[in-house]
Design a protein that fits this description.
With 278 residues, this protein is mainly α. The chain is built from twelve helices and six strands. The protein folds into two domains: 139 residues, no CATH class; 114 residues. Strands 1-2 form a two-stranded antiparallel ribbon. Strands 3-4 form a two-stranded antiparallel ribbon. Strands 5-6 form a two-stranded antiparallel ribbon.
């Protein structure tokens, strides 16, 4: 759930960019982690403390070691001792790690002695991960240009305003032959860690999808329009390489434009193809 901005942020002169600092991000994330612990989202994997029996181990035998191996960093765990020293990448690494460890408690018992709390015995992993995403995405959406934790547990940039529905739109049912390719391009483009080369590869994957459906495109598009699509791809050094291609252009701007343009065109073309076939 993305929380609505309050008055001061709506009226600020920041060109729509968030003023949330890394320190605020860390502080808020620390509180969200505590909320998730209180809900029992990590009991199955990370264990818990019991007044009578001490530390109850979860399925993850050594949390600190696994996080160290996966992040190739030490001193990230436990969170309450380490979070003050986190940089931005540390916060995002820990969020992705916790997503993998989240599961929603569905059955348990309440330990009354000294208000020890709930001890759970059965869990729903998919529901727990969705619950964790709901908690953290309300925070990530307001950090800098906006991020989100996707269903695969990877942090990605939020799309430009007004383009989110295009990225989340599903292709027509008969598009299975290119659906994986298109989804791969979207994932590659949106990941927070994507480079200029990654985004160029995403455009190239969309171009390959066009190549696959090109015989059908000829039946639903004006010939000159169909040829113009491939001229654009071939003239901007996206797929093939030769001395006639244009290379002196701002990749950040034009790869972004090409990605959204070709993605929208694929959706339109596949719907025209489906309409013709029916």
């Amino acid at each position: 759930m993305v929380l609505k901005k309050l008055y001061s942020l709506r009226k600020s002169h920041t060109d729509g960019k968030s003023q949330m600092t890394l320190q605020v991000l860390k502080s808020a994330f620390g509180k969200i982690f505590q909320v998730c612990q209180n809900e029992g989202l990590f009991q199955e994997e990370l264990g818990y403390e019991c007044i009578d029996h001490g530390e109850i181990q979860g399925k993850t035998v050594d949390v600190s070691l696994e996080l160290m191996i996966r992040s190739q960093k030490d001193s990230l765990w436990p969170i309450h001792e380490s979070i003050d020293h986190y940089n931005e990448e540390d916060v995002f690494d820990v969020i992705e790690f916790l997503h993998d460890k989240a599961s929603f408690p569905t059955k348990g018992w309440h330990h009354d002695y000294m208000e020890c709390g709930w001890h759970y015995t059965e869990f729903d992993a998919a529901k727990g991960k969705a619950r964790f995403r709901n908690h953290v995405n309300g925070l990530l959406a307001h950090y800098l240009n906006g991020y989100r934790l996707n269903e695969e547990g990877e942090i990605e940039e939020l799309p430009e305003t007004g383009l989110g529905s295009l990225l989340d739109a599903r292709l027509p049912p008969k598009s299975e032959n290119i659906e994986n390719q298109v989804n791969s391009a979207i994932r590659k483009y949106r990941l927070r860690s994507s480079t200029f080369e990654d985004r160029k590869d995403a455009v190239r994957e969309l171009a390959d999808a066009f190549e696959f459906i090109r015989p059908k495109l000829k039946k639903v598009m004006v010939k000159n329009d169909e040829m113009a699509l491939f001229d654009l791809l071939n003239n901007f050094s996206i797929r093939h390489h030769n001395h006639k291609q244009k290379t002196n252009y701002d990749q950040a701007i034009w790869h972004s434009w090409m990605f959204y343009f070709f993605l929208a065109t694929i959706h339109a073309a596949m719907r025209e193809i489906e309409k013709k076939s029916n």
